[in-house]
Amino acid sequence: MRGRGPESIALAAGVSAHLNGCMRSRLYTVPTRGLGCHPGPRWAGNAYGRLELLWPKSPGPICGDTMDIRTKLVLALVLVALSSMALLGAFAYQTTAQMLQQISVRQLNALAESRKDDIQNVYEGWQDKVSLVRSRTQLRLNLVRYNERGDVEAVAGIRRILDDALTSVDVFERIALFDRRGEEVVRVGESSVEQSFRIPDGDAVEFVGSFPMADGAVHIVLRSALTLDDTIIGGVEVVLSTADLRSVVSDYTGLGETGEVLIVMQEDSEWVRVLHPLRHQKVDHKRIPANEVSAGVRAALTAAGPGALSDGNFRFDDYRGEVVWGASRFLDGLEWGLVVKMDEAEEEQLAHELRGSMIDLSLALSAFAVVGGTILGFWLARPVLRLREIVEQVREGDVEVRADATGDDEIAYLAGALNDFLDEYRGTGGDATDDGAKVADAADPSAEDKART
Questions:
Q1: Digit-coded pLDDT (tens) for 54-73
Q2: Core vs surface per residue 233-260: b (16+ CB within 10 A) or e
Q3: Tell me, what's the pLDDT at 138?
Q4: DSSP string, 363-430
Q5: What was the pLDDT predicted at 77?
Q6: Rounded to whole angstroms, what are the CA distances from 87 to 80, 83, 92, 348, 362?
Q7: What average pLDDT does the segment 82-98 reach?
Q8: Which of 290-299, 329-338, 341-350, 384-393 has the lowest mean pLDDT?
Q9: What is the percent of the chain with per-residue pLDDT over 90, rounded to a whole number?
Q10: How wide is the angle at C-alpha 360 spanned by C-alphas 358 and 104, nearest 5°?
Q11: What's the CA gap between 380 and 367, in Å, rounded?
Q12: Within a 10 A sphere around the Cβ of 394, how many other Cβ atoms?
């Protein structure tokens, strides 16, 4: 082992002082520890009573529990990339799921409006059928004859006309004709609905009400005045079934596998009745206790308001106990409620599929992030690793080596400072081989102890 001379001490201390001075001029400080897992230089007193900078030998890229700068850069870049993708994916999923929810609710409201219009069209069709009955000229002439003379043949003519109308229109259950005093003249057909008759004012067809039957069906009653030459000569009352509504509620277009349309009425203070067969239960008609109806049905039967669920109240439990999304409407004139609903599980299925696709895409992008982060980390760490190689070569005695100082960053500045110092040192006329040996001795902490002994 060679003894450590003043020239090697001066070289090591000079490199440190020169670099420290350069760093301080750029408002940087030299850390007291090394980069990554490499221990930094240490100051120690020598045989001449001076402080000298001792450079330990490099332990390699990874030592103990620490990592070199290249590994740290790779891990940092990969972590940032994966964290960014995770945050972006979570935000994108939440935003998209909310948008899909809004689209579904809007679709349900659009379907509710469409079904409401369909029911109104059915009701208007019933009114038109009653208008056709009352517009029969022979019917009105026979009623005038009956009013004036009580003609029996006129009654027979009225019955034939009403029988023909009853058999021609499927939804007609019963037709009754009344004279101008409101007394019944002829009745054809059967229905258990019994209401006191009053000739309506005006020329419109009047809705009397909806009446549950013993067999579970619901009959509605329409009335209208009969006029001849703008004079009221009597009235007609028609009882109809709600069979035409089945074509409306049985159309599940846009409602998927679980969607359903409900038309409900308040039977009395204790019961709510569904006017048609249900999709999920094999019953023609269903009665629900008034205190057990869902929020959707309750909103639909609210005549004081629009009968529509609020924007934040579209989720409720239906008669099966399933959580559904729905829209409701109140049917003016008929005093019915309309509910269009679909199971929440089916509505959220598209969002779940989107989440699965995003997870698959994230896994694929993660692989690219790992590869890209690794390549970028290695590329960014090259200048630092190159400086370390230069220092190692100087330790081994090669003082002719120079660092690449091209660029305009801190690494290039350090490389230029190191080159300047080596140039100045070579200008003193030192021997390269001897200098390298001295630098190597200065880098070995045990060499000084051996020299002293």
A1: 555 544 444 444 677 778 88
A2: bbbbbbbbbbebbeebbeeeeebeebbb
A3: 92
A4: HHHHHHHHHHHHHHHHHHHHHHHHHHHHHHHHHTT-TT------SSSHHHHHHHHHHHHHHHHHHTT-
A5: 83
A6: 11, 6, 8, 22, 11
A7: 84
A8: 384-393
A9: 25
A10: 35
A11: 20
A12: 24
C-beta separation of 239 from 189 below 8 A: yes
Pick the CATH number of 135-242 from 3.40.50.300, 3.30.450.20, 3.20.20.70, 3.90.550.10: 3.30.450.20
Q: What is the DSSP string of 301-324?
A: T-TTS-S---TT--EEE-TTS-EE
Amino acid at position 272, single letter? V
CA 394 to chain centre: 62
Spatial separation of the C-alpha atoms in residues 303 and 297, rounded to whole Å: 12
Average pLDDT over residues 156-181: 93
The neighbour count for residue 124, using CB atoms within 10 Å, is: 12
Q: Are residues 336 and 210 in contact, defined by beta-carbon separation less than 8 angstroms?
A: yes
96 vs 361: CA distance, rounded Å: 16
Position with higher pLDDT, 293 vs 47? 293
**Per-residue pLDDT at 374:** 83
Helix/strand/coil (H, E, C) string of 284-307?
CCEEEEHHHCCHHHHHHCCCCCCC
3-state secondary structure of 11: helix
Full-prediction pTM beyond 0.70?
A: no
Picking from 136, 129, 204, the residue whose alpha carbon sits closest to that of residue 171 is 129
Pairwise CA distance, residues 426 & 436, whole Å: 12
DSSP helix/strand/coil, 242: coil
Distances (CA, A) of 36 to 71, 94, 355, 442: 9, 40, 40, 22
| Spans of all domains in the chain | 6-67+396-452, 98-119+250-349, 135-242
Note the pLDDT tens digit of each residue in 9-59: 444 445 444 445 444 443 333 333 444 444 555 545 555 555 455 555 544
Distance, CA of 240 to CA of 47 (rounded, Å): 121
**Tokens linked to 41:** 């230089």
Cα dihedral 132/138/144/146 (nearest 10): -110
Q: Which residue has the higher pLDDT, 380 or 127?
A: 127
